[in-house]
Amino acid sequence: MLNNIPLGTYETCNIYEDQFFYTECRYKYWVWLLVVMAIMATLTFMGLKNQKFIQKFSTFARIFILLVMLITSLVALFMEEPLNPSLPKDGVPELSFQNIAMGVPLLKFATGFQSILASVTKEMKNKTTTSYLSIVLTSAVIFVFCGSLGVVTGSALEGYQAPSLSTLAWSGYSAGILPRPLWTVLVEYFVILFPAFNILTSGPITAIALSENIASMVPCKQKFLRGVVWVLPLVLSFFFYDMGKAAAFAGLTAYYVVFISMPLIHMVARRQVTQKSPYEGWHSSEVLAWSIIVFVSFVFILNTYYLVTTL
User: Fold this and answer.
1) Which of 128, 164, 181, 229 is the most exposed place for a label (fewest CB within 10 A)?
2) Domain limits of the chain?
3) Which one-letter DSSP state was computed for residue 259?
4) Between the ranges 65-69, 98-102, 235-239, 246-250, where is the mean pLDDT highest?
5) 3-class SS of residue 89
6) How far apart are CA 198 and CA 174, in angstroms?
């Protein structure tokens, strides 16, 4: 938004090219940050019932924009032309630990939608059919659609230094046609503004789910918690603006939530419930649980190190 939508009479700027902290571009970023946070906080306080139309529209908009990204990447591959020739050439090999360190947490972050399904499906009618259908469709979109998009877009950007937020690669998109037709400008704006739109509409759902989870453990008013959960993201966003790297760091939490906490819970449950289960086997041993914890902890430390070195 900062790159494409001016604030009143002020010009747009590219914060990714900003070398310093206290600059005019950074001040503009903070203004946009407060605007976006205000909108997301409002949607969070509204609750899911009062924003059904917004969420339905945003769902179809996401699919449309992802299709645009997929089709334009495929066209670039078939025409053997770069998606964005203005990007600098990249001499990094296709397989590198730094790329893996960025990709794995992003994949975990993208597949973390399971944590909000309970909060979303409880507002649905005919839960016996709609909740199952929503889970299947969500899984299909995430694993099949986004997986295909990652492979195709990655191939279209191969050999170029793509920005950490890959949608910025569509800046100046022309489809190899000069002068640029109007539809290529529309494609550019659709794709570049997509992350901001996606955060605006998906952020409130995550905040509502998180506040409900906290309320189940800590007795507190729901509206108060819905406001509190936005404090940390606001503070972090004040200092860090790169959404691609921010999503990668957020994905690091999956190492603990999925791969470390589950074996720990399993071992605690085995000690509290002494009787054996018919489902126990070699996979139920504490040795395996501890092996998973140690291995994942090592990968987590290594992954964090590589992410920090890219800052």
Assistant:
1) 128
2) 15-251, 252-311
3) I
4) 65-69
5) strand
6) 24
